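#dry-run=false #mode=assembly
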Amino acid sequence: MLQYTLRKLLHTGLVALGVVTLVFIALRASGDPAATMLPGDASVEELTALRRELGLDRPLHIQYARFLAGAVTGDFGTSFRHQQPALPLVLERLPATLELAFAALALAVAAALPLGIVAALRRGRLADVLAMGFAVVGQATPYFWMGIMLILVVSVELGWLPTSGRGGWEHIVLPAITLGTHFAASLARLTRTSMLEVLGQNYVTTARAKGLAERRVILVHALKNAAVPVVTLIGLQFGTLLGGAVVTETIFAWPGVGRLAVQSIFVRDYPVVQAGVLVLALTFVAINLFVDLLYGYLDPRIRTEVA
Amino acid sequence: MMTSIRWVVCLVLVAALALTAPPAGAQRGAQITISQPADATTMDPARSTQVLTVNYFVNLYDTLTRWDTALKLQPGLATAWKSVNDTTWDVTLRSGVKFHDGSPLTAEDVKAVYERARTPGKSVVAAGFATIEAIEVTGPTTLRIVTKKPDPLMPVRMAQMGGYIYPARFANDEGAKELARKPIGTGAYKFVSWTKDDQLVMDANRDWWGWSGKAPAVERIVWKPIPDDFARLSALQRSEVDIITNVPPDQMKIVRTLTVPATRTVTFWINTTQPPTSDKRVRQAMHYAMDVQSIVKNLYAGQGKPFSGGLADTDFGYNRELKPYTYDPERARKLLADAGHAGGIDVTLYAGSGTMVNDKQLLETIADTWSQVGIRARIEMMEMAARQKMNNERTLPPNGVMLINPQSTLLDADGSLWRLFHPSGFGGKYWSGNQPGQRFHDVMEQARYTLDEKKRKELYTEATRIIHEEKPWLELFQEVVIYGVSKRVSFKPRADYRLIGSEMTVAK
Amino acid sequence: MAVVAGRAGDILVVDVAPRRRRVPWPLVLPAIPVAIAVVAALLAPWIAPYSPTSGNLAARLRPPAWADGAVPGRLLGTDLLGRDLLSRLVWGARISLLIALSATLIGAAVGSLIGLVTGYYRGRVDRVLTKLIDIQLAFPFVLLAIAVIAVAGPSIPVLVVVLAIGAWVGHARIVRGLVLSLRERDYVQAAHALGAATPRILFRHLLPEILSLIIVLATFDVGRIIILESTLSFLGLGVQPPTPSWGSDLRDASTYVRQAWWTATFPGLAIMIVVLGLNLVGDALRDALDPRTVKPRGRT
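#status=ok
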């Protein structure tokens, strides 16, 4: 178990390095932060002076080396726009995004698992069709469309919930639904499929044959084994969730990392983008690691596999 | 072992409990909430020229002189300014003014701020202070500004953005970082708290010199940025906010609005260095082939004032004799044929996404009407940073037409027209150096150093006429600023896009 | 076929071969809207009643033909520049489907090939490529898209490449997983032992097995990419004006949803129905091709 974990950590480090380097190159290949900060009629002298001030006049490999040296100690430089250290800027936004993601996942799981199970049990009947109907429709709706519809119907027309911003529980409901719907849809379908698979397996029929109550059979045995693919999905879909978070945060004026990262890319605020991408990547990898470990716990067979 | 479903239910409950935070401060009597499309990035006045960031500055800080709601220059932190000779100005500061932290305002603070503002690299507003040669402190509340050449606009420069005064100890790199987070000024409102992208709170500064004995009508301003147009409008409809900016003109019927013709114009750069656009007849044809009235009526709900001659009516030098070109496709075709392009021409329209409301649709409409007289326009919407790069590096391709939305910083032809057409600006690069162009340069350069107002007006009149005739850039209309306002708030909308809390009133 | 005896009188029959139906409705029904969209896309230049890019500003935001205030001839109404919505929808089908199909094809081809190769060969190549896949997956795709489009400009070919980049990873991972398990199968081992060249093994023996999987994945991908395109449009990085695409039209219309519901509803419905259809087709294909899914015949 320990070796497995260590190997995964090394893997993580390499991945982080790769991501960071990719971002570094991509950013500098386009756009000019100095140009986005100065008014349109700025003179060449002003541009040069600002570039020097921001440290952009050094050769690329020197910039890279300084960046890496700083990154290892947690210093990602100062944001061009905000004039604050980049990493704390990103980190102080992380809780908002995690809160949103967590709420979305919780809502999605709470909605999708029962839907999937019911659909599997009542396969081919109305409940199945309806449940899967919701799921497919949910997957076919673009994030921003759902957000806008929710604001229009629930907030403006019905007046039940506030339109945007972060605050008490009533502020998180609409964004969480918007963000969580795609995931809930995938999860419902996956749950149904894996439940169906599992229901036909030998040990289920064995359990039935042993005379155990139907309910116990399903809930305890089938669900436990269906958990593995479900956990995988959470790991796989986290990246998509992040993509959806960017849109959701923008529509609902949610002060998260996604919104900051996108804004910063558009104005080429290198330190913030670099810090933001790394933080997001590490979070993603951490989630995956957690998922893998959970995997190992749930299914002992996997632990001994070569990674 | 608990079943998964029970786990899930527990998780959801825990999450719900954890997320229930106490509501953000109950609404106090005289509090207003303002919503713009984005949050300010920094509270350091030397580091941003964005209108929406400046809106924060204008409440937290003061400048030496300021524009009132009628856009007349009034004393601010300076009570008197006198031109001692052609290149020297003596300025007297208001006495007894204190910063929000209690320290007194002195001439040293002003000197430190201006020195920093005019250093390229340290500030982004250096261009506006480029005429200053030296600043001398001549007393605790007096200073002397020496300009390189005669500068008739010095008093106006003292009012521009970038001229916001903060304590001298922040006028260095380390201090600026602190100021960027926790602003300290002399303004009508004091900084209270800031959660980035969420909200910024400012409270009325009872000791402000500008209240003139009256109690502040608005006691607290809360700034809540909402990026999405629809969400912002919806927030106003539900009275979650009191004032919103950037209202799409089509949506004006849904909410209560306040409007005023503003200091911004809708214009496009044309790179005229090569044929066919190097011929002024082609450029004139481009104007005759556009139905600006229809664009304003249909895309901007009538909120726009077609113009010609390069200036908005808010600027000194505005020439009301110059009438905008009419929509005349026949004449356009004829001009093109005269210029030898009866078969039509090819140009490219560029714009940065988000430059202004309906920018994409504006380009599409122009391209559409142009195609009817043979001007074939390809549209390229660019990402803002890429467009800025093209802008600043002056790499607009020949026969490229790029949307700009220039603001007039000094409410004077110098601050708008000349700033843009100056040889070190774009005009120098894009306007082929033929005779009228050269004459324009000479006239504007002369006006820049002419202290006699009447003479300046004459020079500007000639300059605007040249623009009207030559059309070195594409001129459409003067923007109208539209604010969405809730019923409880009242104020006179300003043409310079500033939202000034001390000018607003709240119904109880 | 296996028969498992349970309690007396309670026998469950497990089917391992797919059941044959006369008309596979789960497949055909959802395929109809998709087919309509494809046909519309192909025939757009001939069936669109008006030009999608030329509009009459005076007739903007007019409702569909059955409501009052409508402009005759504009069946589904006009958009905010006075352009005919139906024509834009039909041409939009062309662009949206073109982008989605190209991106899927490229992504599926590249991804499956890589998955095939790494799954079979294992070793160094596998490890390096897997790391690459992980790196890309760790990179929030939206940010990657913005970065690439910012560098290369938002043209249709760039968009296709970016979306293909988003698609290939999923294929690679899943195909690799399948190949990993398949390579241990008897017939593969046998072929190898008999001296068959590796490419032959890959293509003759493994590919047919995984082809059905690839097709199912690709079907879901097309839908996913149509949605992704609309998300990119939301950020201003999608298809550029005046080219119509469902995603960017939906985005532009979103702010008018209260006063001109048709401008947003029709592109929105188009996206939803086509993506829905694709997902259901994918489901049906997967159910039909996957021998492991239980289809209980009932109790005998």
